[in-house]
Amino acid sequence: MTGRAEGAGGAGRYHVPVMLHEVLEFLNLRAGCRAIDATLGGGGHAEAMLEAISPGGELIGIDRDPDAIGAALERLDKPGSRVRLIRGRMGDIGRMMDEGGVDSVDAILADLGVSSFQLDFAARGFSFRNDAPLDMRMDPAEGESAAELVARLSEEELARVIWEFGEERFSRRIARKIKERGSVATTAELAELASMSYPPKARRGRIHPATRTFQALRIAVNDEMGELDRFLEAAPGLLSPGGRMAVISYHSLEDRRVKRAFRELAARGGFLLPVRKAVAPSDDEMRENPRSRSAKLRVLEREARAAGLDQGV
Prior knowledge:
- Residues 1-13 and 306-313 have low confidence and may be disordered.
- α7 crosses α10.
- 41% of the residues lie in helices and 14% in strands.
- The radius of gyration is 20 Å and the shape is globular.
- 49% of the residues are buried.
- A 7-stranded mixed β-sheet has the order 3-2-1-4-5-7-6, with helices on both faces.
- The chain contains 13 helices and 7 strands.
- It is of the alpha/beta class.
């Protein structure tokens, strides 16, 4: 679970952004840089990035959630700051920068997954902590909700989604329970069905029985793996020579993709890995911010001699 977004509904209630010190250090930000926060959320990382690149720098923030854009705008509206906020998908970063006349940037951050901004807003249906309509869309105006997805998929297809994106060992049982119910309209209903599908002893595990099912449906509803793949294909080519990008992931499905993409780029040449292994939060941060516990940070750098490389890398 990510803690990347730091506000809720623009109401001024903020959380601590995950691995903020490490992000600023590894992105090597300085005055005059142009930087992108590709997963803006409530603007916590973005606010610190903006401070680091001022004066003279430009921050570009991207998010598909209109509420997040509004909250971040409130937070980043500082005198003399150069900020550009774009509502859109991180996977479209190449097209958005091309349309905006941006050919290169010095730093890119992506903090993946659902955010505290969305988790704490019960009506969005991301969490089973409060009963709400089973929605889970990062852009409420786009695509089908989780309830509609569950209704459309066959039992076999639903089991595959829960297994593939949730790595849930009881995926078949859960899918069967859901389809036997006929329709699932709320987060409480889904959580109940997932819990009922677990053997009694397994229900006493470290995480709630519904956790992996909620993760799987959220990933499927928002095409998160597809968005990440498209982002990893387009974003490195936007880096200027010596520029860096950092990606924070929260589960193995994301981290494996980031690890593979970064290592393949480094092996082909023109890119470096400033740190070979994923960076984890400090013990102090994990104690103070439980949402950071599963976070992993990976960093990619474009070699200074790579100025002539094709921007479509």
